[in-house]
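ESCALATION

Customer reports they have been waiting on this structure for their group meeting. Please prioritize. Original submission:
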Amino acid sequence: MSIPAEIAQRLNDEVVGAVILIEIDSSEGFVRLYPGEAGVFESADSKRWIGCTLLRMGAVKLSSNGAAPTWEASLSYVHDPDRTDLLEVIRNYGVAAINGRKCNLYFQYFGKTEEMYAPIWTPILLRSVTMRRLVYNIVGPSERSVTLICEGPFPLRSKPLNGRYSDADQRRRYPGDPSLEFMPTHGFDDQPLFGL
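Update from on-call: job pushed to the front of the queue and completed.
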């Protein structure tokens, strides 16, 4: 992430506004959300973002010291029995609609209150994560929540040094690649010294 020098200076000097924007690239198209007041926000690059007071996001952490933190966002709501259940709609699309696809997190800067209605700065890409799974939770007859679990750009950092991939790992990362199917499993046989 690189923030323009002018914005960085303002962040140091003034009380300003900012919001994290979420762009989900699903197989059905883009979904653009931001946590906050209900309504529609149009960014300077003419993209429309839907505000949602029910949206909660986890902390955006960077990979460091061998850790590869996941990121998650959840949507909690009370189901209205007279309307279509959002949880059922999402379940019908299933994990296949998001698995392996990108979710981009943007930083939107507001220098003045007026810029919330007519922004002059385009959103800055903060982080790009890979969506992996959905977790559904139903409490009682009407409380529902859906949580989107994403992995960061370095999900294999927590593996040991000189670790070994199996053919299943290779197929998961590169579908259709059979290159590790016949990998030897014992490459470290004892070798006698001096021909003994």
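Sent to customer with the following note: Strands lie at 17-26, 29-35, 39-42, 48-52, 55-57, 70-78, 102-110, 124-139, 143-151.
Escalation resolved.
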